[in-house]
Amino acid sequence: MSYVLNTLTKKREVDSIISDTIDKVLVLRFGRASDSVCLLLDDLSKSAREVSNFTTVVLVGIDSEDVQVYINYFDITLIPSTIFFFNAHHMKMDSGTADHTKWVGAFHQKQDFIDVVEAIFGGAMKGKLIVNCPLPPERIPKYQLLYKDVEEESPLASASDICCLSK
């Protein structure tokens, strides 16, 4: 379903859409079109039509070398990761997780996506840069980082040693 939404693969494209999206919430979904969880999120993004008056939803392909600057800047290690902007300002959301800068994982229901975008838009219109998540805690993805195949003499794990489990 990702073919329905615009996919960005160049840093210049991402820069442009961030700066050019005015008075709307910009939803950037970082992920892969081949990943089943990303596709689930894309499926939920069909609701983009319902929130199109105040939201623009685009996909960012993480395999493109040109967008690695954003992947590193936003510390995107788990996919899909969704980042929100309003008038070129990075919008953050307190969802009870340690990371307020992005939404990690898929939304459980189409309405969850709509509620989150409405909360961000409402907060942005009031001048806030961080909003509280409107979803109940049981519908917020919880992730625990685990290190696999890390030997005791190696105190640091590489990015390829990290995997994710949903609780």
From TrEMBL:
Short name of any one Pfam family annotated for the protein: DIM1
Cellular localization per UniProt: Nucleus
Main subcellular location of this protein, as a coarse class: nucleus
Any one Gene Ontology cellular component term annotated for this protein: U4/U6 x U5 tri-snRNP complex
SUPFAM superfamilies, sorted: Thioredoxin-like
Assembly, per entry: Homodimer. Interacts with the U5-102 kDa protein subunit of the spliceosome.
Protein name per UniProt: Thioredoxin-like protein 4B
Upper taxonomic lineage: Eukaryota, Viridiplantae, Streptophyta, Embryophyta, Tracheophyta
Gene: LOC107426631
